[in-house]
Amino acid sequence: MTNYKIVIIGAGAVGTRLGMALFDAGHQIVQVISRQYKSAESLAQHFGSVASTNVADLDQNADLVFLTVPDSVLPQLLASFPDHKSILVHTSGSFPIEKLAVASEQYGVFYPLQTFSKDRKLDFSKLPLLVEACNDGVCQTLLNLGEQLSTNVQIISSSDRRQLHVAAIFVCNFVNYLVGCGELIAFKAGVSRETLIPLIMETMDKSVSMGSADAQTGPARRGDFETIKKHLDLLSCCPEEKHIYQILTKAILARYGHEL
Hints:
alpha/beta; N-(1-d-carboxylethyl)-l-norvaline Dehydrogenase, domain 2; single chain; 10 helices; Rossmann fold
């Protein structure tokens, strides 16, 4: 196994969890760069490495440099990059690979399809790692690196990666927001969020095991307009949640062939 010298730029959730996974796999995290020195130092201490707030300080001996910053930061960061010989890698779901060319001759994408939280440990062993690269050599390096972390490593184009990122927004971010809506409605009824947890867990398990189409239940799936009307009346005190209910109910009715 090749052990790489790696720089992590960005000490947020993705940088922290990916950096720790690479470190645990035996790679050297030689430097952490972040806009906030305290964040860079805290993460660097875990690896026994150097912290910095300036990309101009980039370790010139690094084999790979991972950019784990928000997409909105990438253009300015890339424009300020010093000369280097490292492979430059971003971890974004939607940032085009070709935009890395302004900062490096060797570049690629290493997109972990997962939701990250800084203080929540992740098992990378089955996590989808989606790879794209400027040439075959970089692609093979990223594939080899990915296979040291996960059994699910795939080559994917920028256009397909962007589509998958949108899909991820639906199944992760939107679903989580809807859980929050449900918790709020339950709270107004004097019921704790814990009461909903068995339903949340069974819903996701069914969706995964049966497929979402077969797992769908509820009044909109059945075309039960009387119950839908009662729900809308109850939601009069929650205008935002009522609006979401209306949009999703209309979509489910249409998908399962019920006329409005």
